[in-house]
Amino acid sequence: MGSFIIEGINNLEGIVEIGGSKNAALPIIASTVIVGREYIIENIPDIEDVRMMFEILSSMGCKTQYDNGIALIDTRELNTHSVPENLVKKIRSSIILMGAVLSRTGNVEVAFPGGCEIGLRPIDLHLKGLRKLGAEIHEKNGILFGSVNNPKGCEIQLDYPSVGATENIMLFAVSAPGNTTIYNAAKEPEIVDLQNFLNKSGFSVRGAGTGTIVIEGKKNEEKDILEYKIISDRIEAGTYLSAASSLKSKIYIKNIEKEHFKSITSLYEDAGLEIRETHETIVVTNRGRLRSLEKVSTQPYPGFPTDMQAQFMASMATANGNTIIEETVFDSRYKHVPELKKMGADITTVGRVAVINGVPRLYGAEVDSKDLRGGAALVIAAIGAEGTTKVNDIYHINRGYEKFMDKLRSLGVIITEI
Ligand SMILES: CC(=O)N[C@H]1[C@@H](OP(=O)(O)OP(=O)(O)OC[C@H]2O[C@@H](n3ccc(=O)[nH]c3=O)[C@H](O)[C@@H]2O)O[C@H](CO)[C@@H](O)[C@@H]1O
Ligand SMILES: C=C(OP(=O)(O)O)C(=O)O
């Protein structure tokens, strides 16, 4: 399954360019099936999850080509409403195809999705929303069968601002006649990107980025080739920021949308990183050991993202003092903790709370990556550790980080893949 070997070093220096956002690209690629046409989408990250989404679309009769960040997608010949079970189970965003395929064909068959194992991850809010819009959905042997005769816009109050449920409902509501209003919608920048994409496609969505999204359902017969550019990945940018945190470093992080990751930069500034912003670049300087922070809770956007929790924990593992982290979004997202402890970290978890007692140095060890961000956090920890670290099962990391090894090398990290 592949491993990284990382030699601990003394400082990071260089420039790293951030790619397109995984969590924006995946639902946008899924939404291309709603209208059969050709699309040219730029800034698509070169990652395993995207390759998987292309494989799903290809298996359903669509054509996809990808080269150097640009995808050509042709969904005119979609020939099934059945999403292949083996592929659906590999990525989380495959569930978003439910709303998109229902929109296009009025029917869908899809298994429960995969993705990182970071808790229960039910899809009750997706199903509740789609049903309210008129879909009939039942489950048999782990497969969801959906059909719709008379979709109708409606008001949907989400019990929690779920990213996936908001996206799924948007993709079905765009073609359900009448207005749909989603209350307590997720506010993530990736939702705004999806709205922008849908509007450019000829649909009518407004309010994304706030808790209330209004979708005017309508027939969309646009046929022209559609061009779009995905936003950059705020979590990838945050991950390189965390790489600078345990060493004396000066790195330039390019191609960012800095307003999207204010909650990340402000936390690292509080911990002692110097961050200077120019238009699309931030310059991060670390002059020594970071300070611990009293308490950090993960929250839906605009709060501190759960997708940065593991990397932030790796940073705080060598900070001066104790930090408390509370993971409020997922119920089981601490699988990186036992691995960080193998490297000498002093961390105790009780339920969703982790107490990190910063130690002066971590040391190299053999550790296992259990999920995407947890795996990245182990690499971050290894960069500042004394000695050699072997991080196993790096396919988790490759799901969501584009050219991770090459980008780290460009910052001076001594890393090889075996
Ligand atoms: C591909 C993608 O975009 N993944 C992101 C998306 O995941 P995802 O869309 O799965 O995350 P959600 O926002 O839906 O989940 C947040 C919380 O809501 C719960 N929940 C969700 C749906 C539901 O029907 N019922 C329910 O109880 C989940 O179990 C979890 O505890 O947002 C997460 C939260 O920012 C990120 O960590 C993921 O990187
Ligand atoms: C949890 C994540 O991804 P997914 O929802 O695709 O599993 C993530 O990107 O951190």
Automatic annotation (TrEMBL):
All residue ranges annotated as the Enolpyruvate transferase domain in the record: 7-408
Residue numbers annotated as active site: 116
Catalytic activity entry: phosphoenolpyruvate + UDP-N-acetyl-alpha-D-glucosamine = UDP-N-acetyl-3-O-(1-carboxyvinyl)-alpha-D-glucosamine + phosphate
Binding residues annotated for phosphoenolpyruvate, in chain numbering: 22-23
Modification sites for 2-(S-cysteinyl)pyruvic acid O-phosphothioketal: 116
GO molecular function: UDP-N-acetylglucosamine 1-carboxyvinyltransferase activity
E.C. no: 2.5.1.7
Main location: cytoplasm
InterPro entries, alphabetized: Enolpyruvate_Tfrase_dom, Enolpyruvate_Tfrase_sf, MurA_subfamily, RNA3'P_cycl/enolpyr_Trfase_a/b, UDP_GlcNAc_COvinyl_MurA
Keywords, sorted A to Z: Cell cycle, Cell division, Cell shape, Cell wall biogenesis/degradation, Cytoplasm, Peptidoglycan synthesis, Pyruvate, Transferase
Protein's cellular compartments: Cytoplasm
Binding residues for UDP-N-acetyl-alpha-D-glucosamine: 92, 121-125, 307, 329
Pfam families associated with the record: EPSP_synthase
The protein's annotated pathway: Cell wall biogenesis; peptidoglycan biosynthesis
Enzyme class: transferase
Family indicated by similarity: Belongs to the EPSP synthase family. MurA subfamily.
Function: Cell wall formation. Adds enolpyruvyl to UDP-N-acetylglucosamine.
Identification of the protein by name: UDP-N-acetylglucosamine 1-carboxyvinyltransferase
Taxonomic lineage: Bacteria, Bacillati, Bacillota, Tissierellia, Sedimentibacter
